[in-house]
Amino acid sequence: MPSLTPTSGTGAELVASRLLAVLVVDELDTAVPLAEALLRGGVDSMELTLRTPVALDAARQITEAVPEMRVGIGTILTCDQVDQAKAAGAAFGVSPGVNPDVMRHAAIAGLPFGPGVMTPTDIDIAIREGARLLKFFPAGSSGGLAHLKNIAAPFTHLSIQFIPLGGVTLENMSDYLGDPLIAAVGGSWLAPREAIKARDWSTIEENARRAREVLDRKV
Q1: What's the mean pLDDT in 179-189?
Q2: Among the listed residues 68, 38, 16, 49, the one whose alpha carbon sits nearest the alpha carbon of residue 165
Q3: CA–CA distance from 186 to each of 48, 72, 78, 98, 208 (Å)?
Q4: What confidence category does residue 6 fall into, taking pLDDT thresholds of 50, 70 and 90?
């Protein structure tokens, strides 16, 4: 199954970058300059969430115009959305929860896929479906790194890793990155929705650069 794993395929590439910008794009003409701003700041992986009608078209534009950016599709809730993400050229797919039907469909479609987990049961189901690189979501409100350590403890011998999203910030990302459970970090704070709408590329570039500086100090 082409799930995200820490050691192969798209999962390995995402782990290598260790930073993932989670984005809500409302206007299509912001897609390419947004990707360019993130790249200038040192972030080369993004998750475009399916919360707006332009997300898939944005993925197509970025994939074509900014090939250095690794583009994934997030908020995948249905099998049809798996097919749409694949057709849009997505390098990977992400969901907020664990849906075995969607994960199996992603496997058939050949789309590397990371399910969202928050409980031991979530992790157990995801592992049974072949996933080894999991989205920990929502990280902040569910108890952060301490919670993750507790729920992951029975499964760590299976070589799983996590990407915490939702509550990760510039101030706490170093704590996450210092733990071996964490493959990468990210979130919408790298490029807030309002900053994208305002076309504030300098702020987005600076956010990415500051995050990259924190990451580089951990390497």
Answers
A1: 95
A2: 49
A3: 13, 13, 24, 20, 10
A4: low
Q: How far apart (Å, rounded) are the C-alpha atoms in residues 18 and 179?
A: 13
pLDDT of residue 204: 98
Which of the residues 36, 47, 129, 205 is marked catalytic? 47
Residue 171 a catalytic site member: no
| Whole-prediction pTM | 0.93
* Distances 174 to 91, 153, 186, 214 between C-alpha atoms, Å: 26, 21, 11, 7
Separation CA 216–CA 219 (nearest Å): 5
| Domain extent listing, the chain | 9-218
Yes or no: domain 9-218 corresponds to CATH 3.20.20.70: yes
CA distance 91 to 85: 9
Q: What is the mean pLDDT of the chain?
A: 93
pLDDT at 218: 75
How many other C-beta atoms lie within 10 A of the C-beta of residue 219? 6
The catalytic residue among 36, 129, 135, 205 is: 135
Active site residue 47: yes
Q: How far is CA 119 from CA 140, 161, 172, 179, in A?
A: 14, 14, 21, 19
Res. 152: pLDDT tops 50: yes
Quote helix, strand, coil % in the chain, to nearest 5: 50, 15, 35
